[in-house]
Batch of 3 targets.
Target 1
Amino acid sequence: MKGDKKSIPGMKVLLTKLVPVFEIGVLALLFFSLIGSISRTKNVVLKIEKEKQQVEELKKEREKIIKDIEIAQSQDFVEKQLRDKLSMAKEGEIVVILPDAEEVKKFAPRIDEEEEILPEPNWKKWLNLFM
């Protein structure tokens, strides 16, 4: 029984040394778990913000497309397309087709721009005379 009594205090000493180590280990595990959770939460928040921006861009694009469709379905747009692309006209109208800008330039009279040449100064004339 003497041996049993000695091992009990030894166990108490061993437990008193191991309990703080175990507590530190548990705290470290909890700390790293918390850091990981914070990091994942931050990444999710950033992803949500990015997706919100994309949704806003898509809403703007959708509104633009809706406006374009409304314009394309209007009578004025249809008439303009018929006139511009198909060269059609209403009854009583005359269609005038103008040539490209390059063709118009060929028919326009050329204006030769002459530079004004100033007479040579007198000092240069004298210099040329003696040299």
Note: The longest helix spans residues 2-72.
Target 2
Amino acid sequence: MERIFERSKSYLTVAIAETLAGDGAKVAEDFVWDHSLRVLDLAQRICHEHQVDVESETAALTAAAMYHDAAWIALLREGTIPPAKLLSRPSDVGMRKISANVLRQEAADVMDRRDLELACRYIVELAATRHESPVMQALADAENLEEIGLIGVIRQVRQGLLSGKSARRVLEGWHRQQEYHYWESRIGAGLNYDVSRRLARNRLDRMGVFFDLLQQEVELEDLKEICSRELARSENKLFMPELRQKE
């Protein structure tokens, strides 16, 4: 597995020009690499929690998790998209097929052919909504969990900024999701394992806290709270001398 990690890190971590610095410096673009590592870790932990036997599929699961979004890097490398567009929308079956082809090219000499083809199949099947293999179900849960919680919030805000949305419009999008019970439906119908659903609900609670705090700032409720306290203290200071005089 070490060779798969080395290959995937080399492919998924891209050096790009740091244009803001204006000095031609290079920085590592590791957004997809970081995401892929979490997906693998999540999938493995879900399998462990539910006693899913992955021993014979460890190589396939590892390769599939590390390369499932490699299509985005392929587009970045060929100049089709800028770094800011990485993971800016859900990957459809076309993107999954590109990712599988990247894996075939990258790992043909370091993976058993059966494991390689199974990993490619897992990647393509991520585009589906239903999965029969317990390992595939864990991988799909891990991918979906990346959209829920504060990591999911980062992606929502990032996509909103790329689309030119204001903080208020991002907040309105969250309220619409709440109104239509979007996330509850995703959790109920889109996740396969109990531990995944429990984790998703915990993460959803944290999303709610974030957007509550964002609303306070958008509506200046935090300022109003401070101003009301300051006003109360000011009125108290004005009133206290009168009391002392009466004493």
Note: The chain has a mean pLDDT of 89.
Target 3
Amino acid sequence: MAIVGAFDIHRGQLTYKWTDTLTGEVSRGRICPADREHLRVWLGQFKRRRRVEFAMEGCTGWRYVAEEVTRIGAVAHVAEPADVAAPTASPRRAVRRTRPASTVQGRRVSLSTHWFWILSRGAGTAALVLSAFRAPYRGRSSPVNAWWGSFDLAVSLFSGAPAPPPSEDFIMRNAMDSQEVALGWWPGDPRFPRAAFYAYAHPAVEGFADASLEPDAARWDGALGEFVLDWNDVCASPDPHATALEFARSAFRHACRICDWDPALPASAEGDPPPVS
């Protein structure tokens, strides 16, 4: 999704604040006059965006705002004034009028819906992709795990060789003491505020980042130390499942080649198992 925003409707005034969740751009201002015609013109800028959501309170004047938002194919979230303003004012006061600060809470309502949409759709697709990627592999591998600390799904494929853990704390000593390649999907975090598939190798040898993976949208992110493929690029492709699976296999082939794995292991992940002895 690209745009998450909220309207503040109060005494004939219509103010707004919206955020582009992909670029981080923030815009705020006022629509004058606050009527249907001017709102329709203002909303025209969002007609061609893939995903747009606006939150608003169900107070006087909200109906035409919601109608115009849905008219361009966007999602309108309407909440009770007392519910939206609860963190910033008493319910009694919220019923009388809309507090400007409640727009922030309205945006939280919309953002919650955004993350639910990303997690429900993205996680389901990712689980199928990662399961398909793991299925033919003849080496040791983990299940497709859900890591609740970062809300990501991931699968690790192992070469069978030991590796020094990246640190000496209890978790790292026990969870990352083997040579592995990890593939996963997560909804983003403050360092990378959008959903994406990712891939990394442990330990990563010199030159690991110097590769061009498939599809073309895949790239190395130096801040994360991982290869990434944005979820939006996956969704925009003709076959999202095949695109994400192509990324996983491409990353694994590259990691196995540069980290000097047994060639039979990456071959098995492509569905070409070694002969039965």
Note: The radius of gyration is 24 Å.
